[in-house]
Amino acid sequence: MSLIDSHAHLTFPELADCVEDVLGRCAQAGVEKVITVGIDPPDARAAVELAQRYPNQVHAAIGVHPHNAQKVDETDLIELAKLWDHPTVVGFGEMGLDYHYDFADRGAQQSVFARQLTLAKDRDRPIIIHSRKALDDTIRLLLEHGYDQHPVVFHCFTGAKDEAARIAEHGWWISFTGIVTFRDPGQLKEIAGAHPADQLMIETDSPFLSPAPVRNKRPNEPAHLIHTAGFLADVRGVEYEALAEQTRQNTQKFFRV
Asked: Within its chain, how far is the Cα of 203 from the centroid?
């Protein structure tokens, strides 16, 4: 059974310079498709171009990452919104808030996040959220902009059980990375084991977060998704093939690919 990597960064230099080889290893590993995520306007254009080059393997999702909030203006956001209408684009983001690193002023982060939510509101596409130590403000802004029960995924979820429950209250999803395979993943293993099967999505977030048993390999790449899938199958007590098929169907449904 094949997998879909629901969140990777194929346009980042670590992977872009050898993307054909990366996608070849995907096919060999059984990773059927990759959603590559652009994080600022230039990266968004690169993601769309890559999806055009590999239409059978790559889809694009594009937005402004909170780290880049102070590097964009209204013109950039309007141009990004126009690019959202490109047929290769299956989701908007990643967007959101990051209060862990604070690479951008929090006010700027909230402003750029809110503006993207406004621009996305009349476009019926799923939203990919980056939220780190900022869940209260992230949820508040999503609700203020009318995204309750809208297709929203909190990618690379690393929070606690109560945070997962708060997200689920609004019909939003969470996605698991290789962090769940780490020696001390907090409550993540327990959350992943009990997560509703029809909402389970997995990702690499490559070139970051290589999963066990390839923890020391850099860069991470979409072919390594098989390790996260295998780990989750064991945690959930199901066959690998069943886990792969379920996550593939869920990702297809969520992104309409």
From this structure: 7
Tell me whether residue 168 is exposed, middle or buried, using C-beta atoms within 10 angstroms of its C-beta: 0 to 12, 13 to 18, 19 or more. middle
- The separation between the first and the last C-alpha atoms of the chain, rounded to the nearest angstrom, is 17
Q: What is the CA radius of gyration of the chain?
A: 17
Contact by Cβ (8 Å): 199, 191 = no
Instruction: Give the Cα separation of 152 and 143 in Å (integer).
Output: 11
Please check whether residue 9 is in contact with residue 65, taking contact to mean a CB–CB distance below 8 angstroms. Answer: no
Q: Are 59 and 33 in contact (CB under 8 A)?
A: yes
Q: In what order do the strands lie in the sheet with 89-98?
A: 3-8, 31-38, 58-62, 89-98, 127-132, 152-154, 173-176, 201-202
- 8 A C-beta contact, residue 250 and residue 236: no
CATH fold group of domain 3-255? TIM Barrel (3.20.20)
Question: Can you give the pLDDT of all 257 residues of the chain as single tens digits?
Answer: 699 999 999 999 999 999 999 999 999 999 999 999 999 999 999 999 999 999 999 999 999 999 999 999 999 999 999 999 999 999 999 999 999 999 999 999 999 999 999 999 999 999 999 999 999 999 999 999 999 999 999 999 999 999 999 999 999 999 999 999 999 999 999 999 999 999 999 999 999 999 999 999 999 999 999 999 999 999 999 999 999 999 999 999 999 99
Instruction: Count other C-beta atoms under 10 Å from residue 20's C-beta.
Output: 9
Helices 135-144, 106-120: crossing angle, 10 deg rounding:
30
Token pair in block for residue 126: 């799923």
Q: Which pTM does this prediction carry?
A: 0.97
* The token pair that represents 44 in the structure block: 């968004």
State how far the Cα of 43 lies from the Cα of 93, in Å rounded to an integer: 12
Structure tokens at 149: 């029960």
Residue spans per domain, the chain: 3-255
